[in-house]
Specification:
Layout lengths: L2 E2 H4 L5 E12 L3 E6 L1 E2 L13 E3 L2 E9 L2 E6 L8 E6 L1 H25 L3 E7 L2 E6 L5 H16 L4 E4 L3 H5 L15 E4 L3 E4 L14 E9 L2 E8 H21 L7 H32 L8 E4 L5 H10 L8 E7 L3 E7 L5 H11 L2 E5 L3 E6 L3 H10 L6
Parallel strand pairs: 1-4, 16-17
Antiparallel strand pairs: 2-3, 2-8, 3-7, 5-6, 5-8, 6-7, 9-10, 10-15, 11-12, 12-13, 14-15, 17-18, 18-20, 19-20
Helix pairs in contact: 2-3, 6-7
Bound molecules: zinc ion.
Length: 389
């Protein structure tokens, strides 16, 4: 049985231990058992630690029959006293996030009676699922309360109560636990069954932020961060806000108004440009002579609506079909084709396969895109006759 130093002191970053065994396993990896370890093997939603043992890298840590196995990339000598170092920055961030999650879950439970029914610590923060819906306004209250608990620097203790003691303690637990139960108590805030290492006082958590919440399965799913991760996130958000504030020459509380104004202005201009484009197309069409075959028009930067408008405006200028396109040889062309005399639904297959295209529609109008050069498109429609309706 390996002695678990992380339960005696969650802040051990380095330690010396005796190598009990070192076995070579697949892919030149080595499974090492020490007499004691501060490497947490993972559990309670928290990932296993990594680090080094002498000059070997600890790739993975896991439990097997009361022993903690360290998977190394090179061997260590059996019977030797080795120096072990945890990747402390990673472990400390995880403890901050995990203890932060207990604070949030404890508050949500006591204020709203919601149970934590899912928990995942990932790259983008901690995802927590509660079985009851809590509104964003109430979650803001939770976030403020949580940070007050951090500022009050309350004690975080781990308890190993006897079965008799346990029966008189009220605690949160995600599942039925058999055997020795370990409880994490955050003074005056939460008691929860958990096997992971935690910070010693809430002050170490630093900051707790709830970044987003969505309704999920009748409850709510939160994404939260804490500690150094939350500090880095807050600083990055500050940088963005500062840049926006300089860009808009606005105070921070005026940025949203400035963005809305810009968006409205953009909408107005795009409407105006649309009108001008259509005017231009009408003028251009007025100068085109009627053709016996197909009419092919290339227009710069036309969206589908503009293409449809131009195609419909061209009615009467062709006897075959009217093809209006916008794009370029590299990214391809969007197209709208209209005709009163050719069945375009039937022709769509021929046209798309000849011009590496996709799309379709009704017999009088088809829309889509071609991945073919302009010259090839022009040549194709010069000769294409299609099938009359
Ligand atoms: Zn936990």
């Amino acid at each position: 049985m390996t002695k678990r130093l992380y339960y005696e002191d969650s802040h051990i970053k380095e330690f010396k231990a005796l190598v009990i065994s070192c076995k070579c396993v697949n892919d030149d990896k080595y499974e090492v058992i020490l007499d004691k370890t501060a490497f947490f093997p993972g559990g309670g939603g928290q990932a296993p630690d990594t680090g080094t043992i002498d000059s070997a890298r600890v790739l993975k840590v896991f439990e097997r029959e009361n022993f903690i196995i360290h998977l190394l990339d090179s061997p260590v000598e059996e019977g030797k006293l080795v120096k072990c170092y945890l990747d402390w920055d990673q472990r400390f961030r995880r403890m901050q996030a995990h203890s932060g999650e207990h604070v949030i879950s404890g508050i949500v439970h006591s204020l709203f009676g919601a149970e934590n029914v899912g928990f995942h610590m990932g790259e983008d923060g901690v995802i927590v699922d509660f079985d009851k819906y809590v509104s964003p306004e109430d979650l803001r209250r939770v976030e403020i309360n949580a940070n007050c608990i951090v500022m009050e620097d309350r004690c975080v203790c781990s308890l190993f109560p006897s079965i008799e003691e346990l029966s008189s303690i009220s605690y949160r637990s995600k599942r039925e636990i058999s055997g020795q139960v370990r409880l994490i108590e955050i003074e005056g805030c939460d008691v929860c069954a958990c096997c992971a290492p935690h910070v010693k006082r809430t002050g170490e958590i630093g900051i707790i932020r709830i970044l987003e919440s969505i309704r999920r399965k009748g409850g709510v799913r939160l994404r939260m961060i804490a500690g150094i991760d939350a500090l880095e996130d807050t600083l990055a958000r500050g940088d963005v806000t500062r840049e926006l504030s300089a860009f808009f020459s606005s105070k921070i509380d005026g940025i949203i108004g400035a963005v809305k104004k810009l968006s409205e202005e953009r909408e107005r201009l795009s409407y105006e440009i649309g009108g001008l484009r259509r005017e231009l197309v009408s003028m251009k069409l007025a100068g085109i002579n009627k053709t016996d075959g197909n009419l092919v028009l290339f227009e710069p930067d036309f969206q589908m609506d503009d293409l449809r408008y131009a195609a419909n405006e061209a009615e009467g200028l062709y006897k075959g079909m009217c093809v209006v396109l916008s794009g370029d040889d590299i990214s391809g062309y969007r197209y709208v084709i209209v005709s009163n005399v050719i069945d375009l639904r039937t022709a769509a297959g021929d046209i798309n396969s000849a011009l590496n295209g996709r799309g379709g529609g009704k017999s009088e109008m088809i829309t889509g895109s071609f991945k073919a050069p302009r010259e090839k498109i022009e040549r194709f429609f010069l000769n294409y006759k299609g099938v009359a309706i």
